[in-house]
Design brief:
Number of helices: 8
Protein name: TIGR02444 family protein
Strand content: under 5%
Pfam family, one: DUF2390
InterPro entries: CHP02444
Shape: globular
Organism: Lichenifustis flavocetrariae
Structural class: mainly alpha
Amino acid sequence: MSVASADEFWTFSSTTYGKSGVQAACLALQDRLGADINLLLFCLWWSLSGGPALDTDCFAAVLTKARGWQDGVVRPIRAARRTAKPGGAIGEDEGATAFYQRVLATELEAERMEQKLIVSTAAAEASKLPARLSTIEAVLRIHLAQYVATLDTPVRQEDRADLETIIAAGCQGLSAAGIVEAIWP
């Protein structure tokens, strides 16, 4: 996989995010669990794209890079956007709305840059691994289990339902309920 594949990841993410119920599910997991939606969607996309199962060390390298960018860039921009929301602290004049739109566009570009970082790191880490054959569902379960194990918040039933919604939208043909049950018994 090449860094150019990051464009395919962005397209997959945008398409999946636009499906019924996915935006609400993503925002709920982001707010309740502190989940990085780029990492969740990466687990789906990487598996569907035929990416190999990353071992714990390789996946940890991806997490470290993503979290550094998320904490240092994306979250501060998101906080600024939420504060600048029209009708909020800054009011509702034309300038406030235009400013909000620019901050929103910057946040989306930061998310896209994070995806490039995730894909390039995963590809570099995958190149260190011996070739292995795994099913899409097996790779997805491995990566989702590795990621959700890093979340510090207890999982609730609505979190399971939201993750099922995201998996079902992004990975049609796989058992979303079975995958969620396997990683969050």
